[in-house]
Write a structure and sequence with these properties.
Elements: E1 9-11, E2 17-19, E3 49-51, E4 55-61, E5 69-71, E6 76-81, E7 86-92, E8 98-100, E9 107-114, E10 121-128, E11 140-148, E12 151-160, H1 163-186, H2 193-217, H3 222-237, H4 242-257, H5 263-276, H6 307-313, H7 319-330
Parallel strand pairs: 3-10, 4-11
Antiparallel strand pairs: 1-2, 4-5, 4-8, 6-7, 6-9, 9-10, 11-12
Helix pairs in contact: 1-2, 1-3, 4-5
Length: 336
Amino acid sequence: MSTKSLFPTKVWNTGLLVFLLMHGVAHAREHSHCQEIPFTSPKTDQPTVTVDRVEGQVVAALPEMNGQLASASNLCMALFYLPTHRRIASLSTDSNGAFHLGDRRSGHYVIVTSGSRSPWRLPIAFSLSGAALRSKPARGLLLKLIVRNDRPTAVIASPIENLTLRRELLEMLKVDQGIRNEAIERGITTVSAEIKTQMAKIDALNDKRLRGIVGRYGWPGESLVGVDGAGAALTIVQHLSPRTQKQLLPRVEAAFRADEIPGGGYAMLVDHVKLSEGRPQLYGTVAKPFRKDQPIEFFPIEDPANVDMRRKAVGLPTMAAYRKLLRQMYFPSKHD
C-alpha cells in the first residue's frame, strides 16, 4: 500500500507534524513599538554563547504541550551593543519566529525580547565572533522562551551550527509546500496529472538531496539547523519514496531519542513506513483524503483503543483533537 501524501505537511506551531495548508508567511519586519524597548541588563550568571550572525529563530517551550516548542511569532526584539548599551536594530519576528538582524562586527551584544502587547522583557547576552566569512558554516542563534502561567519567565540561547544548511532546508520546504498548496487549491480529491508530475519531480530532487544531507551530517536536528530547519526536514521526508523513508527512519528515531526533533515528526514517519509495508499505522497520523462534507477517516490503526496513549507519549494531541485540527486546516471557517 502506498501512502505517499499528495498534501502538505507542516510543522505546526506546537512542533507537531500534521497535514496543514500553508496560508503564507509574514516576514520579520520593523515595528515602531518595537523601537521603544529599553536596554535591559542580562543576568550575570547566564552562559554566553558565541555565534557568527544575528540570525535565527525564537521559540517557546509550552508546559501544556509537555514542553514542546512553539514558534514565537510577532515578538519584538531589540539588539544592543553591550559595552555602550547603544541600540543597533529592532524588529518583530515573522510568523515562524525567525529573525535576521544583519551582519555585525565582533563583540558582546544583548538581545531584549518583549511581547508586542505585554509589559514583559527578557534580555540575553551573546558574543559575535566576527568570523562570518570563515571556511566553516556560519552559526546562528536559537532563543528558547520558558513559559510559566502564560508568561515568558526566562530565555535560553544556544547556537544553530549551520545557517547555510538551515536556509537550504527551508527553501526545499517552500518548494515542497508550494506545489502541494497548488494541488489543494485546485481540489484536494482530484489532483491533475500535471500537478502530480511536477510533484514527483520535486520529491525526486528532495529525495536525493535529503539523503545526501543525512549522509554527511546525520539527521538534521535542532542543534544543527534550528527548530524550523529540523521541522523542514521532517516535513520533506514524509513525501519521499517508501524506500527512502524506511532507510532514514533509524536516523529519525535516533534524533527523536536525543531530543533533537519533536515526537510528532517521528510518529508520522513511523506510520508512513508501516502503511507502505501493508501494516496498520501506530500513531494514527495519516488520514484518508476527505471532502468538507465527509467525516475524516484514517488508514488502519493498530490497537486503536490505545492510540491516544501512544500519541500522548510522543507529544501528539488526541485523535478527536487531531480530527478537528485537520478539518480546520483544510476547510477553515471564514472567522478563522
